[in-house]
Amino acid sequence: MTAPAVRHIRLVTEIPGPRSRALLARRDAAVVAGLGRATPIAIASGQGALVTDVDGNTLIDFVSGIGTLAVGHCPPEVVQAIQTQAEQLIHLSALVGTYEPYVALCERLNALAPISEPCKTLLSNSGAEGVENAIKFARAATGRPAIIVFDGAYHGRTLLTLSLTSRTYFKKKFGPFAPEIYRAPFPYAYRMGVSEEEAVEQCWAAFERMQIAGVDPETIAAVLIEPVQGEGGFIPVPVEFMRRLREFCTRNGSLLIVDEVQSGFGRTGTLFAIEQFGVEPDIIVAAKSIAAGMPLAATIGRARIMDCAHYGGVGGTYGGNPLACVAALATIDLIERERLLERAKVIGRQIRARFEPLLADDTLDPLVGDVRGLGAMIGIELVKDRQKRTPAAAEEVLAILGRALERGVLAMRAGLYVNCIRLLVPLVITDDQLEEGLEVLIGAFRQ
Description:
- This protein has helices at 18-30, 64-67, 76-86, 100-112, 127-142, 159-164, 189-192, 196-213, 239-252, 303-306, 322-337, 340-355, 394-406, 431-445, and strands at 43-47, 50-53, 58-61, 119-124, 146-150, 181-184, 220-225, 228-229, 235-236, 255-260, 283-286, 297-302, 367-374, 377-385, 390-391, 409-410, 412-414, 420-423.
- The model has no long low-confidence stretch (mean pLDDT 96).
- Helix 3 packs antiparallel against helix 11 (322-337), helix 12 (340-355) packs parallel to helix 14 and helix 13 (394-406) crosses helix 14 (431-445).
- The chain is built from 14 helices and 18 strands.
């Protein structure tokens, strides 16, 4: 790929600039200290794959609101849909009455779900709430309490979803946690130091052993898994492992729930990542990019399962707000019209083409140990030693991201050891913008 003819990054002050620093000082004084902050900048506006901070600096966004902006910042079609809806009905609550956007979106999602029988959907506010609803439906449908999750999983920050989430950093001081959660090893072949086939066999043996030493299989309501682990480091589940999970759930009378909060809505090159695994889930949880940044989640599943919850047992005041619903409908239209599923695959290939050569570059510090993912959901794992696969220190990864930010690219970490760089570029990014951003990011590896 040739260098872009037009430079999109525009820096007029240092990063962060004086206005960003002033707003951050106000934030520190007014906002709880426990709210994390990946960068020291304050953003005023965004369009497509570009954001402009309060100092007038324009940067390329490789974070997309942690994956919420597959269709980019402020797509005109979505903005118009929200504005039109706001003039008619801002809120009512689906618990009070019915409005067309809620029903229309559920109809659309039911039709799009990769499940070969009638589906129904419940809308809520966030990925964590969507996951909790999935657990409730599974327990109601099976009459069982136990939920199986995996090492490295991230499912949210509420009490139940923190119980499901793996990384201990997020859980400090917040216990005790919800019961009947059982954690199985995840086939993370790179970190295990074995082939994908060996990782599947080892983790499957542990999964079967857990049913003897950890949890009675007759009590398992559901297995909950991310088709591509997000916070855990952008690790796709091996297809064979997912196939065995589906077989187990069918045989055992348990449900297979896929958490597509980060991997869904076109990010991996299919609307839902699970479409690439050759199995059908029973319930899908979608959020983040479903509504172009509006707070919305959907729990979609087989109608016979979803109708097992008792009348009045699910719902929430704001779930399926009209503004979020019309934003989601416009987002689906945009994904289809602009062929963004195919675009995600192209973006993924372009990112890999730039980063995979670094797997053999021994001049970097830290080193690139692995490049992985599906479609435009790409993770770069950094290590100190390629043979031992020793994770790079968090400070080293932060230093790379800091240099990239100073030069105009917004990127973010991931992974249990926070030694991965996650790339979640908007699918509407232009080739010139993508190339310019990758050039800056790779340059940040070399100081």
